[in-house]
Amino acid sequence: MNVEEQASVQSSVFYSIYEDDELYQDLLGGFVASLGPRLQEIANAVTQGDTPELRRLTHKLRGSAALYGFPQIVDALQKVEKDAKCLCDLITTCACVRTKTRQ
Predict the structure, then answer these.
(1) Does the residue 6 lie in any domain?
(2) pTM as predicted
């Protein structure tokens, strides 16, 4: 994805495919409210280089996003889950470089 596509995605607002279903309204609100803390857990796993935890958290959130009808979130998390080890390896490598240059 190039920079222009990323900017377009970041400026978009995503809606659940169930947004018009009254039965889902409270559930969707709860899911959306939980995104911040859940994404913070994912960020912590990335920062710590904890690949198994990153995979677990992204898999769990991906399942929830699918259940609540957010295909854009599902797609993004599927990519993160697939590339979790590469991402954690990169973070760990960069942390080591930063640590060694400060000494």
Answers:
(1) no
(2) 0.70
